[in-house]
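Fold it.
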Amino acid sequence: MSEIQTIVFPTDFSEASLAALSWAKRFAAILDAELHCVNVVQEPHTYAAYDMGTVTMPSLEELSIGAQSQLDDFVKEHFSGATSTSVAKVLVGRPANEIADYADSMDAAMIIMATHGFSGVKHVLLGSTTEAVQRQASCPVLSIRSE
């Protein structure tokens, strides 16, 4: 009997991230793999303005609980009736680092994620989580360009 494989599908719940969803489900079915749907919460920063004082941000625990609830709903909506097993996991930290590290810890067969495909100034300003994951991951990364 073959070992169960893992595919990691990161999402930020945006329409763009949905571009890779059908690919992730398809590969999971073909490989009879467990599909790990992950969302990364970044630690909140405290901002201060001279005229407003300190702006209160939600705690990391509150952000994580909210993200887990949203991720559970996302999985229920998009993975009901899927032939493969799915796991919903919230990670905390810098998105690219956490996605690559999680895939390594799960010995993932691959990561399937969307990319905006920005270039020029937009790429410089917004960066690319997908590009950073591709540089850091030890497994293959399939990036699907969103329209």
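Residues 2 and 32 are 10 Å apart (CA to CA).
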